From TrEMBL:
It catalyses: adenosine(2503) in 23S rRNA + 2 reduced [2Fe-2S]-[ferredoxin] + 2 S-adenosyl-L-methionine = 2-methyladenosine(2503) in 23S rRNA + 5'-deoxyadenosine + L-methionine + 2 oxidized [2Fe-2S]-[ferredoxin] + S-adenosyl-L-homocysteine; adenosine(37) in tRNA + 2 reduced [2Fe-2S]-[ferredoxin] + 2 S-adenosyl-L-methionine = 2-methyladenosine(37) in tRNA + 5'-deoxyadenosine + L-methionine + 2 oxidized [2Fe-2S]-[ferredoxin] + S-adenosyl-L-homocysteine. It comes from the Bacteria. Reaction proceeds by a ping-pong mechanism involving intermediate methylation of a conserved cysteine residue. The active site is at 113 (proton acceptor), 364 (s-methylcysteine intermediate). GO terms for biological process: rRNA base methylation; tRNA methylation. Keywords: 4Fe-4S, Cytoplasm, Disulfide bond, Iron, Iron-sulfur, Metal-binding, Methyltransferase, rRNA processing, S-adenosyl-L-methionine, Transferase, tRNA processing. This is Probable dual-specificity RNA methyltransferase RlmN. [4Fe-4S] cluster binds at residues 133, 137, 140. Belongs to the radical SAM superfamily. RlmN family. The lineage of its organism: Bacteria, Bacillati, Actinomycetota, Actinomycetes, Micromonosporales. It is found in: Cytoplasm. One of its GO terms (cellular component) is cytoplasm. Its main location: cytoplasm. It holds the Pfam family Radical_SAM.
Length: 374
């Protein structure tokens, strides 16, 4: 049963009507918060640990399977602390079943997507941090529809826990059964939903039973370059990988491709990335979607090479995934190779991203659930 906790709806004429908050969930709370929530239900506090061990450790959410809890308490605890947050609407697979995209409906009807990718040595999930996105990058499908709302911490975490359960049940043949990596590269700008994303990272990396016990180093947060938030993330002393969506080495073009560049320029973004690398010792990933005749010129490769050489950064070239209605296309392979060659000649490590999920519109920048729904 889904419990909806409706917050009072404000009706003041000058304020937009607020959406009801998502139901509170175990994954929204730290361990002290869980203990007091359990106590408030009239249960012994240690039940919080048992419930967490089911959800995070055994990936179980069905109260009937929680046999170490007294039968009388199971339903009450699960109804209150494990409400249904994500309801699968559609599931699509490609790459021989190794890539799966799920469209979820949230409690208020908002839609988000996540993508599970299995490899012989690892299982990665690409998750959403917001329904829609407010950053308006013109080549990105999510950016076209605008922002619907921030996801709650638990709505973010539950995408991972759900897929961890799928992987554990052997959903990806030929792949490990343990989900090990998370990338915040689905819908939304994670650093624009800062506190909830940070708390989600804690839940994902806290050891069981408090959390899922993933390695911080196996979590990647991708950002358009919200400079103050990058500095703030560096202060958290987390070991997560930062990816910066640069897409252009010059402000003139970046102002267009990543409109938030009008606020924080290339130099400031790279300085923030540097500060992050210095504080965490983690190499920053510079994301660069290769767009034919737009940002793929040899001189831009050389300029990017000069900007990055000597920094603790590497470049990840992403073949553009053309989105409906966009006038842009991916760069030809020979242009991409020359771009990569020039970067490497400047001493910058460069890789080309694989394009998992293209046929199911599940690759980078293709997630557009809210647009589909309207
Ligand atoms: N808002 C964050 C995370 C979401 S997108 C960010 O911008 O970093 C994850 C990556 O996919 C980003 O690097 C984004 O720029 C890139 N991307 C967006 N649209 C794309 C497209 N059509 N083709 C290839 N990459 C795209």
């Amino acid at each position: 049963m889904t419990l909806l906790r409706l917050t009072p709806v404000r009706t003041s004429p000058d304020k937009p009507t607020r959406r009801p908050a998502p139901p509170r969930h175990l994954a929204d709370l730290d361990s002290a918060g869980r203990r007091s929530a359990v106590a408030a239900l009239g249960e012994r506090e240690f039940r919080a640990g048992q419930l967490s061990a089911h959800y995070f450790g055994r990936l179980v959410r069905d109260p009937a399977a929680m046999t170490d809890l007294p039968a009388a308490s199971r339903e009450k605890l699960a109804n209150d602390l494990l409400p249904t947050l994500l309801t699968p609407v559609t599931e699509q697979a490609c790459d021989g079943g190794a890539t799966r995209k799920t469209l979820w409906r949230l409690h208020d009807g908002a839609l988000v997507e996540s993508v599970l990718m299995g490899y012989p040595d690892r299982v990665t999930v690409c998750i959403s941090s917001q329904a829609g996105c407010g950053m308006a990058c013109p080549f990105c499908a999510t950016g076209q529809a605008g922002l619907t709302r921030n996801l709650s911490t638990a709505e973010i975490v539950d995408q991972v826990v759900w897929f961890a359960g799928e992987a554990a049940r052997g959903a990806l043949p030929g792949c490990p059964d343990r989900l090990s990596r998370v990338v915040f590269m689905g819908m939304g700008e994670p650093l624009a939903n800062y506190n909830r994303v940070r708390d989600a990272i804690r839940r994902l990396t806290d050891p069981a039973p408090d959390g899922l016990g993933l390695s911080q180093r196996h979590i990647t947060v991708s950002t358009v370059g919200l400079v103050p938030a990058i500095h703030r993330l560096a202060e958290e002393k987390l070991q997560v990988t930062l990816a910066v969506s640069l897409h252009a080495p010059d402000d003139e073009l970046r102002d267009e491709l990543v409109p938030v560049n009008q606020r924080w320029k290339v130099a400031e973004v790279l300085d923030a990335a540097d500060a992050y690398a210095r504080q965490t010792g983690r190499r920053v990933s510079i994301e660069y979607a290769m767009i034919r005749d737009v940002n793929d010129h040899p001189w831009r490769a050389d300029l990017l090479g000069r900007l990055l050489s000597g920094r603790l950064a590497h470049v990840n070239l992403i073949p553009l995934n053309p989105t409906p209605g966009s006038r842009w296309d991916a760069s030809p392979k020979d242009v991409e190779r020359e771009f990569a060659r020039r970067l490497r000649a400047a001493g910058v490590t460069t890789t080309v991203r694989d394009t998992r999920g293209r046929e199911i519109d599940g690759a980078c920048g293709q997630l557009a659930a809210s647009a589909e729904a309207t």
